[in-house]
Amino acid sequence: MNTLLPETVVFLFFNRPVHARRVFEQIRAARPKRVVLVSDGPRAHVPGEAALVAQLRREIEAMIDWPAQIETDYAPENLGCGRRVSSGIERALSRYGRAIIVEDDCLPAPTFFPYCAELLERYADEPRVTSITGTYFLGRKAGPYDVGFTHFPCIWGWATWARAWEGYDRELRGWTPDFIDEIGRDGSIPGFLPDAWRKCFQWIAAHTESTWDIQFWFLQFKKRGLCAFPYRNQVQNIGAGQGATHTTTRRFSFRKLYPFEPGTLRLPPELIPDLRYQRYLQIEFYSNTTTWRNVGWKVLFKWGQWRRRLLGSLAQWLAKGKPAASN
Fold it and tell me: Contact 74/48 with Cβ under 8 angstroms?
């Protein structure tokens, strides 16, 4: 991996000082050239929140102690998660063309930033790649490459370009059941589950005020875009559980980060989705269906993981016990 400094980092925060300070320490260590601070306004019905939000904004600004361009995008009143996050991202991308985006509950590894910076540069003019995520839900995987691709994006520490955001519509006015059926028929997204996504988009279209990311997934599906992901998890979700806006279970949080060694990022020569991982993502996270086929696939996937770990441990044990070769 090269040592590209991140140019623009968008930091999204609100009213969680412990989370925000911890995550921003990692941004501070990365020393991006430009920091865009995006904060929602306080809710009028929550006592003391106005003072909390104002104090946290001052604290985060005070943590910027390196020569960076600072831009503040602070809402005077509460816009809600859907409007505030999407408007902050849209404004930053319209001004700077590309950005790394970090929310206050997404703790990145130190190598997350050069990883994103390198891929933002590498795929800047590649329309098939529409986003970059730092999250790998399986922790880590050994293989010939450090990066894979999927049609299903993840926004727990991610990056994108203005070209990929173009056409974003938080109101999801372009959604129709026919569009979902079309993807299922044309095979452009292998393993796509039309029934699951039809229900998902139908619900989101009626509740756009509370979310913004599903709308970006919809846009990525329209563009048949790919999300680059690392085979070593770069982001830990520290906000899951009680008090979270959406991720209220710790099932999807991670305790481990697996940084890359400097100068070792290996990119695949072709833009081909990892079909096994794509299937895993769709069944594990995006589908509420429980069929024997899906259950069986999960069992086989977990068995494959366990088998690889067992063989790896066995190889390490044998290597330790092997006598040194004599001259």
Answer: no
Per-residue pLDDT reduced to its tens digit, 117-143: 999 999 999 999 999 999 999 999 999
Report, in angstroms and rounded to the nearest whole number, the Rg of the chain calculated over CA atoms: 21
pLDDT at 325: 46
**Cα 8–chain centre separation:** 16
Q: Residue 93: beta bridge partners?
A: none
Are residues 254 and 134 in contact, defined by beta-carbon separation less than 8 angstroms? no
Residue 30 dihedral angles phi and psi, to the nearest 5°: -75, -20
Q: And the tokens for 96?
A: 């700077």
Nearest alpha carbon to residue 9 among 79, 78, 58, 73: 73
Q: Which fold has domain 8-167+224-273?
A: Spore Coat Polysaccharide Biosynthesis Protein SpsA; Chain A (3.90.550)
**pTM of the full structure:** 0.85
Q: Where are the beta strands (DSSP E) in the chain?
A: 8-13, 34-39, 69-74, 98-103, 106-108, 129-133, 147-150, 158-161, 226-230, 235-237
What does the domain layout of the chain look like in residue ranges?
8-167+224-273, 293-322
Q: What is the dihedral of CA 236, 239, 242, 246, to 10 degrees?
A: -100
Token digits of residue 181: 């059926």
Which tens digit of pLDDT belongs to each residue from 189-204? 887 888 888 888 888 8
- Alpha-helix runs per DSSP H in 133-290: 162-165, 177-186, 194-205, 213-222, 275-281
